Amino acid sequence: MNGRRSKWILEIHKDSETALQFFFWVSKRPFYKHSLDCFIVLLNRLLRDQLFAPADHLRILMIKACRNEEELTRVLGFLNEVSVKGFAFSLYTYNTLLIQFGKFEMAAAAQNAYTQMLSAGVEPSLLTFNTLINILCKKGKVQEAEVILSRIFQFDMNPDCFTYTSLILGCCRNHDLDSAFGFLDRMVKEGCDPNSVTYSVLINGLCNEGRIEEALNMLSEMIEKGVEPTVYTYTVPISSLCKIGRAKEACDLMADMRKRGCYPNVQTYTALISALSESGKLEVAIGLYHKMLVDGLVPNTVTYNALINELCVQGRFEPALKIFDWMEKRGGLPNTRTYNEIIKGFCLMSNTEKAMHLFNRMLKVGPSPTLITYNTLIRGYCKKGNLNNAMRILEMMKENGFDPDEWTYAELVSGFCKGGKLAVASDLFNKMIKQGLRPNQVCYGALIDGYCKVGKVDVALSLMERMEENVCKPNVEIYNAIINGLSKENRLSEAENLCNRMVEQRLLPNVITYSTLVDGLCKNGGTHLAFKIIPEMEKRNCPPNLHTYSSVIHGLCQEGNPMDAEALVREIEGKGLILDQVAYTSMIDGFVKLGRLEHAFSVIRRMINMGCTPNYRTFNVLVKGLLRERHLLTENCVNQDEAVDICSLDEKDMSFEVVSDLLVRLLDSGCEPTVNTYSTLVNGLCKEGRYDVVDQLVSSMQEKGLAPNKNIYGSLLVAYCKNLKVDLALEVFSTMVLNGFELHLNVYGELLCALCKASRVEEAQEIFNSMLERQWNPDEVVWTVLIDGLLKEGESDACMKFLHIMESRNFPLNFQTYVILAREISNEDKSIEMVGIADKVRI
């Protein structure tokens, strides 16, 4: 049964009383609610048959059934039309109307109804006056409410506690606490005792004005007078105490609340959790959250958002994601800020796929993405080095009605500079200016740093001048970038002058500034001069950091003094500092160059023991030493310098034999190879395209009883795909799926490309279908798998086939994705049939 069918039955039924019985019978059915049309039809029938008593009852029900201001306005209009002789508004009707007006904060309508009531000769009751006073006071219209108060006395009535409490509320909302306390004194003099609501309103008013001590005193006063505080009474003081950093007192107040048999509700917990989170007491807030669950209370969106937002601010994204999951499982609704914070967290963890999945959910069910959402995703892709997708997000945001701002361009310029694409970065920079946007420090800084890194320091200097002309003051980071560029080109006097200019601009050189100068000196044979800067740094209360020391160690080793470097390392370690991979690798390289390979292996042992994990370059340096040693043994060279020159030609020639030798020597040196050791080697070899060595290395690893990790399997899968060893690739793929390893879209793209190239399209289609079972953003699937995968590899037919699979499985794509796909297909394969794509994008 629905409202339309009920209305039809009420219209056609011959007998009005039977229709009335049907009306009440059907209203008792579960999940059924009468529409206003049903009320109107039946009320018209009852009035036509002059059944005024049931009509009056129905009129009251009709008023109470209104769910919003629009419905109540419609009902009032109808009731005024049918207000015939014998069916005028009663006091009960007027009071019901006033209560509903109050519910929807319709102050003007309430005043009109009151005037109409008096004109109709209906005498108001105290309920009438109280309701109207309450409506006016909630809107802060205290003077108008006082006029109504005077009418109470005119009708020989006395105000009650509700009357005065409403007036006190109005004064508090107007921030007029003196008048609020004036009404309190007046009500007490007139023998009207304040109740818990009266005290609660005053306590909240005091808290909102920052008068916490007075609020707490009033709380004590009400208890002394035998008025029991409610949950509502405690909630605002608890929150206010937290906001001014008095979290312990807030917790004590909650404990006192419990002792009095008044248990916190969701709002109390949420107030305390929010305030504790914002004041940095996050662990206590999380503890309260768990206590709340133990008490059987269901947290609301505000509770979850308070915890999630603060965790994200602190960079603790893993626990934030856990709470986000709990929130969704318990039916909570994240707001835009929550989504943006979680998306930011995923992007910082380089997991743009999960970020895009959340973005897709925002597009589907809300809340709608904001400019911050798009900028965050662009930053995430730039950080990951996926500049294609960053530009695709830019296109999508424009299509969805968002104009890029200064931060959008800053992220893109920075991303393209870091990716070594200065020409694109410069074009974006100029485009930004043409659009009337003013580049910020981040934007200028990224471009200046980019030019410095490719040796175009003079261009960077002119850009800094342009920056100053545009009233954008260079910051320390920008000066540091140019000083770094000058130092690398051995233009040290200019770098020093720039340091002086910094000081003139009232910018204090920081540890990066000094470290940059140290690095420049060390790379240009001036390590002895660099040593003089370190005491100067300490004198200026800017102690050297690991980067400073790493530069000095590298300089000493480059100049053939690894023993001095080792002595410096001991000194640094004595200060409680742990060196990084750069410093240890430089030292290892220094000993390798001196032909002291055993000592180099002792350094790597020390490196591992200190908790610093070797990277691929570290192993590469040791391989260079092994190749040199092998050359000396096989060629019987006497001249060690000749051996170094010869072996340096082959230092990237990481054959399986040499890698095996490296692993044996590591073991002999007390550095037993671990899964991480193999993972580092496999990943590095894959980047060099040495897939044959990777295959052998993984087999050797498994023979030794070590199980490959996710990274090794991923690298191996890519290696097999590149060599079109699809059967082996499928084996690795199955193993990864069975072990529950997460596969990224680019890995799926590699596998699908390999299968299509091997003419095994049906298997590729099967894997693509299984891939779609997981939670992806459909647009990102097209960008990464279809465009950057299949289409880039010349598999345009497979690309179209997989697109049709997505469409047939109802994976909706953003309009702009079709535009991007059409453009890419046109660029890659001009012979392909474009009708299908053209239909989608109307081109």
UniProtKB/TrEMBL annotation:
PPR repeat positions: 90-124, 125-159, 160-194, 195-229, 230-264, 265-299, 300-334, 335-369, 370-404, 405-439, 440-474, 475-509, 510-544, 545-579, 580-614, 674-708, 709-743, 744-778, 779-813
Annotated keywords: Repeat
Similarity comment: Belongs to the PPR family. P subfamily.
NCBIfam families documented for this protein: PPR (TIGR00756)
Protein name: Pentatricopeptide repeat-containing protein
Organism name: Protea cynaroides
